């Protein structure tokens, strides 16, 4: 009987949960926004939405959710090149858990290519991961509650009151709609830290046969 590793298996694995938690603790010490279970679960939901909508099969979606849940564990090693270190960590963990080699290769490629510094949407799962990860901008990710000490990342995330990532009915466009409270941040602030991420999202959308659009406060900017 062939063992099929499930998303549930990964979510319930104590070692994986420990790595996610400790990676987030490292980012907290460095002053970064939340990258813990709320973030990785939301990214997994986003990946599932994208691939389900585009008609990918159930197993591909399961594999994508595994990649999404584990995509940030490399922050445990260092924030710099965390996608590559995370891919190596994920290989060791998932190989130990008995994941099929072909599926494992897809997960490793997706995790290793999700960051805008070096990432490329090398396959559809990597593309979905990029889009779901980069669209998770929200006030609840900000851990610093002293507005007077916000850096630009805190300001931008805290200013976002609503986000929606949506594929149109014709499956031609994927649109990220964001509402920003300009009391805390300007639209220019958003572009200052997210421009490279949005460029990567456009490439990821193209891998999936879509056009990427960005709407902020009702105005289409990309």
Write a structural description:
The protein has 222 residues and is of the alpha+beta class. Helix content is 54%, strand content 11%. The protein is built from 9 helices and 4 strands. It has a 4-stranded mixed beta sheet with strand order 1-2-3-4. Helix 3 packs antiparallel against helix 4, helix 3 crosses helix 7 and helix 4 crosses helix 7 (124-134). The longest helix is centred in the C-terminal third of the chain and has 21 residues, at 187-207. It is globular, with a radius of gyration of 17 Å. The model has no long low-confidence stretch (mean pLDDT 95).
How far is it from the N-terminal to the C-terminal residue, by CA?
49 Å
Fraction in helix: 40-55%
CA radius of gyration is 17 Å
Please give the number of β-strands: 4
Tell me the strand percentage band: 5-15%
Mean pLDDT, all residues: 95
Query: Which structural class should the secondary elements be placed in?
Result: alpha+beta
In short, what is this structure?
The protein is α+β, with helices and mostly antiparallel strands.
How do the helices and strands line up, and which of them pair or pack?
Elements: H1 7-12, H2 14-30, H3 37-53, H4 58-70, H5 82-96, H6 101-112, H7 124-134, H8 152-159, E1 160-167, E2 173-180, H9 187-207, E3 211-216, E4 219-220
Parallel strand pairs: 2-3
Antiparallel strand pairs: 1-2, 3-4
Helix pairs in contact: 3-4, 3-7, 4-6, 4-7, 5-6, 6-7, 7-9
């Amino acid at each position: 009987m062939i063992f099929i590793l499930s998303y549930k298996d990964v979510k319930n694995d104590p070692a994986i949960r420990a790595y996610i938690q400790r990676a987030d603790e490292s980012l907290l010490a460095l002053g970064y926004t939340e990258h813990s279970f709320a973030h990785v679960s939301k990214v997994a939901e986003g990946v599932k939405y994208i691939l389900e909508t585009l008609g990918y099969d159930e197993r591909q979606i399961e594999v994508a959710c595994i990649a999404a849940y584990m995509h940030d564990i490399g922050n445990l090693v260092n924030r710099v090149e965390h996608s590559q270190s995370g891919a190596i960590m994920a290989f060791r963990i998932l190989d130990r858990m008995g994941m099929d080699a072909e599926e494992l290769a897809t997960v490793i490629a997706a995790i290793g290519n999700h960051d805008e510094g070096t990432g490329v949407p090398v396959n559809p799962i990597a593309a979905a991961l990029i889009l779901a990860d980069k669209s998770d901008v929200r006030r609840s990710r900000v851990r610093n509650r002293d507005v007077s000490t916000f850096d630009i990342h805190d300001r931008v995330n805290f200013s976002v009151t609503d986000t929606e990532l949506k594929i149109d009915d014709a499956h031609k466009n994927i649109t990220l709609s964001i509402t920003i409270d300009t009391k805390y941040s300007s639209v220019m602030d958003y572009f200052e830290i997210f421009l490279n991420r949005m460029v990567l999202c456009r490439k990821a959308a193209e891998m999936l046969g879509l056009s990427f659009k960005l709407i902020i406060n009702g105005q289409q900017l990309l």
